[in-house]
Each structure stands twice: as C-alpha cells, then as structure tokens.
Amino acid sequence: MAIVIQGNLLAKKIREKLKEKCIELKQKGITPKLAVIMVGDNPASKIYVKNKNKACQEIGIEYEEYLLDEKIKQEELIELIEKLNNKEDINGILLQSPIPVHLDINEAFRTINYKKDVDGFNPINVGKLVLEQETFVSCTPFGVIKMLEEYNIDLEGKNVVILGRSNIVGKPLIQCCLNKNATVTVCHSKTVDIEEYTKKADILIVAIGKSKFVTKEMVKKGAVVIDVGINRNEDGKISGDVDYEEVEKVASYITPVPGGVGPMTVAMLMNNVIKATKLQANI
Ligand code: NAP
Predict the structure, then answer these.
(1) How far is the CA of 239 from the centre of ligand 1 (A)?
(2) Has 28 been annotated as catalytic?
(3) Among residues 28, 72, 139, 176, which one has the fewest Cβ atoms lying within 10 Å of its Cβ?
(4) Is the pTM of this model over 0.70?
C-alpha cells in the first residue's frame, strides 16, 4: 500500500510558519495584503476564493475582494488591475480563473505588476521560471514540488510524466521538474497511447480534469502518483483524476483528493504573498 502524502497536514505546517513570518513583518509595521479579483459567479471559484480568504485570516494577511459582474468590459478589468498595481498597501494581486470568455485573460495577467503577481502568470515571471531565475512560481506546481521535497522524493534523473499541459498547471510543472533535473514527458489530449508513457513514469503527475482517468494498469509498481485533479461528481462528491482506491495498491506514494494538492496550492499562494511583501519592502 502506498504512503499517503498528507497535503492537509503539510499545508498546515507551512501556514504556521508563514504566520510567524507575518508577525515579524507586523512588528516592523508592515501588514501583507492580498487583493483577489473574481469575475462572474462560478461556484467552484467561489469555494477557492473562500479558502484563500480563510487562509489569509489565519495567517494575518489582509484580504480584499473585488467581485465583478460577468458582463464587465475588458477596459474596466484592466483599469481595476492598474489601480491595484498603484496601491502601495496591496502586495499581491490574484485574478481568479476562469473568467468569462469575452475577456482577454492573457492581457489581464500581463497587466498585473510582476512584483505583485503572486500567482506567477505574468509572462515575465513565466520567463524567469524558464530561465531558472528568482520568480513567483504558480501556486499549484509550486505546491506539488514542495510536497515532493517534504517527502524527500528526489526528482533528479527520474522519469516524470505529466498529464495535462494547461498554462496554470501542466506547463509550469514541466519547467519546475526540469529545473530539478528530471527527465520530463508531457501528455495531452492528442497523445496517442497515453498508457505507454504513464507506465514508464517514476513520478506521475496528473492534471487533466477527468475523474478517475488513471487506473492501476497505467501505473508502474512503486511509482509516485500526484493527483492534481478536482472533479465534482453528480452526487456533489469530489474526486481526483486518479482511481485512488486501485492505484494506491501499486504506487509507493499517492496524494488523496481532497486533502492533497488543493491545500498546498493555497499554502503556496500565502507563501508568495509574504514573499512579495518582503520584496516590495526590500527586506
Ligand atoms: P485545463 O486547462 O482544462 O487543461 C486540461 C489539460 O488536460 C489539457 O492540457 C488537455 O489537453 C489535457 N487533457 C484533457 N483530457 C485529456 C485526456 N483524455 N487525455 C490526456 N490529456 C487530456 O485544466 P487545468 O486548469 O490544468 O486543471 C486540470 C485539473 O486540475 C482540473 O481537475 C482542475 O480542477 C484541477 N486543478 C486543481 C488545482 C489544485 O489546487 N488542486 C489547481 C488547478 C487545477 P489539451 O491541451 O490537448 O486540450
């Protein structure tokens, strides 16, 4: 049976350390502040935003929420981001995705000042990740890497196979793993015979949004399996992209859903807000 990677516990430990850092900042007269922009009424986004607010409260980070009508014009969204860029008391800006399709999310991410880009989606920060320079790594890939580090799972020389190539998860993960000297393969919806690749993975990271897609037969014995997927089933229950009950019988390590990558994502966001605050204060 696989060792369960306890994302919840790990995230709690990280939040406790961040709380201490926040107290130190406050002793210097600095209070970190995160601004979150949400456009429209996406139910999943509402839950994510609520969790981010809760984590901020726990750590002592001030939190400001901007809920915009789903019919908002691009210019209005850009205007708000520019206003937040110029507000000195705001240290981090997050635009919750998805946003309605009539809006240009790339322009929005580009507009967020890269020094306040705690989600790591501004092309400057993406480029810095590629060049292995100090940057804000987007929170989910960062959380995955942190989990592996905490469980002493070394990536060097390992065959890492990533399912999914989205801009927010898959692509930054490719770079994060490459920066750790892994040999990285990425599969997507056009990959022919995915199983051929997954079976060779020492570390399999799945981020495709298809409930229980990865079965036991697709996993090499002893592989580490990281499940990023969050799927809401018809009965309201949440499941991952991995058939957990079956795959845990062959994997050496596995992340549960919920309680795996999800809480780590929020913890890494908090980490990035504290980091942004320190950078902006030159400390
Ligand atoms: P996304 O933007 O929809 O991208 C999905 C990716 O999976 C695409 O690259 C797509 O390929 C690929 N894909 C879809 N079906 C596939 C299939 N049958 N075989 C192989 N590849 C397939 O999704 P995302 O934003 O990356 O999110 C992925 C999952 O992670 C979702 O369940 C999401 O809710 C979850 N998520 C979790 C967290 C967290 O904190 N735990 C954070 C973000 C996202 P193409 O590029 O070819 O279309």
Answers:
(1) 14
(2) no
(3) 28
(4) yes
* Type of residue numbered 157: G
The verdict on 72 and 145 lying in the same domain is no
Regarding whether 199 and 105 lie in a shared domain, the answer is no
- Same domain membership, residue 232 and residue 179: yes
Catalytic residue among 52, 146, 158, 212: 52
265 CB within 6 A, ligand 1: yes
| Structural domain range at position 80 | 29-114
Rounded Cα distance, 6 and 119, in Å: 23
Residues 170 and 250 in one domain: yes
- Residue pLDDT, tens place only, 105-156: 999 999 999 999 999 999 999 999 999 999 999 999 999 999 999 999 999 9
Q: How many CB atoms lie within 10 A of CB 73?
A: 11
Give how many domains the chain has, as a whole number.
Answer: 2
pLDDT bucket at 234, cuts 50 / 70 / 90? confident
From the CA of 208, how far away is ligand 1's center (Å)? 3
Q: Is residue 98 part of a domain?
A: yes
